[in-house]
């Protein structure tokens, strides 16, 4: 269902404030985690100022350690929804478990399926039974075909509002970058599938000062949008502080990325 042979024309996902795919370029941004009502509302204003149309934030966090912050749960979803609505933004948030699908759907415009859940087939089928858009992240050890097959699990249940997110993969050298940003996957995926391809330079590189150059590179590679993490006090962020762009750097990044995109 996801192949170009099946559907030659690009999928375009229409949300209240954004179009994702085709010739559209969609900026998505926000904190890694929803930390508090005040914080996410402050960050949402910055997100909007940078020209993004989708607000991100995790309320259920897939942390590597069970002792790390796990998210605010349903309160976090409510804060994120309000922050998005107050700024005329769409919302993306991660759903981690099948029993949460219905509840998360009440709040969000887009389900994020995290890298660690890319092959959670029961979760993929569960979001496939809804009509909520799905942003599917590439697993850290997933091949391009693994990613396309994961998307197929969603589409085969009836939900075709899918976009794919390249967020970096593990390679033999991840000493200086959190993952290896597979830029080549972007044009390859666009040959193989009609789904929109979105770049996540934040998780790909893991260091804030590398985000802007890689966001720019993703535009050149043909990404149809980006999803980036921001924070106004990265040293005290509940998660992923080292890769968060401070507001002024986020605004500089979006300005450059939009200018590059216009120049293509
Ligand atoms: C996130 O978006 O904060 C996240 C956990 O991403 P990933 O699943 O790509 O690691
Ligand atoms: Mn994160």
From TrEMBL:
<dbReference type="GO" id="GO:0003849">
    <property type="term" value="F:3-deoxy-7-phosphoheptulonate synthase activity"/>
</dbReference>
<keyword id="KW-0808">Transferase</keyword>
<feature type="domain" description="DAHP synthetase I/KDSA">
    <location>
        <begin position="19"/>
        <end position="255"/>
    </location>
</feature>
<protein>
    <submittedName>
        <fullName>3-deoxy-7-phosphoheptulonate synthase</fullName>
        <ecNumber>2.5.1.54</ecNumber>
    </submittedName>
</protein>
């Amino acid at each position: 269902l996801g192949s170009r042979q099946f559907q030659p024309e690009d999928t375009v996902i229409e949300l209240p404030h954004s179009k994702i795919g085709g010739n559209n370029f969609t900026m998505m941004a926000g904190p890694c985690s929803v930390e508090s009502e005040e914080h996410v509302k402050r960050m949402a204003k910055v997100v909007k100022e940078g020209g993004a149309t989708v607000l991100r934030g995790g309320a259920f966090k897939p942390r590597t350690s069970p002792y790390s912050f796990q998210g605010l749960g349903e309160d976090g979803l409510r804060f994120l929804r309000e922050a998005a609505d107050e700024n005329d933004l769409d919302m993306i948030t991660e759903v981690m478990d099948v029993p949460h699908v219905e509840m998360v759907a009440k709040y969000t415009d887009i389900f994020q399926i995290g890298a660690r859940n890319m092959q959670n087939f029961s979760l993929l089928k569960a979001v496939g039974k809804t009509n909520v858009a799905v942003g599917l992240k590439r697993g850290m050890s997933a091949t391009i075909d693994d990613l396309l097959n994961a998307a197929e699990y969603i589409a085969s249940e009836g939900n075709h509002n899918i976009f794919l997110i390249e967020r970096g993969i593990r390679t033999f050298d991840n000493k200086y970058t959190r993952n290896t940003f597979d830029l080549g996957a972007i044009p390859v995926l666009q040959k193989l599938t009609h789904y929109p391809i979105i770049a996540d330079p934040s998780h790909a590189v893991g260091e804030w000062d590398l985000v802007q150059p890689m966001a720019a590179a993703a535009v050149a590679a043909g990404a149809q949008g980006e999803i980036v993490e921001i924070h106004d006090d990265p040293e005290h962020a509940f998660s992923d502080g080292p890769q968060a762009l401070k507001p002024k750097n986020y605004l500089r990044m979006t300005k450059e990325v939009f200018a590059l995109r216009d120049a293509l």
